[in-house]
Amino acid sequence: MRDQMIETLRVYFSANILRHKMNIEIMLKKPMGIHDHTDWMAAVEQEIATIAEYEDKLEVLEKHFS
Question: From the DSSP assignment, how many helices (H) and strands (E) are in the chain?
Fold first, then answer.
């Protein structure tokens, strides 16, 4: 059970990193495709902050529980 929980968290954190990287790619390639954002720099910065958060979580998980 422990290993399954750790693996599930690893996959979850990794998938969220990919998700937010995709958001940045979309914003950089087709910014007009997402009309809700008006401050593109702030939106990209927020996505980067979210990636950093999930990378930190993944690092802690691997360092302390693998």
Answer: 2, 0
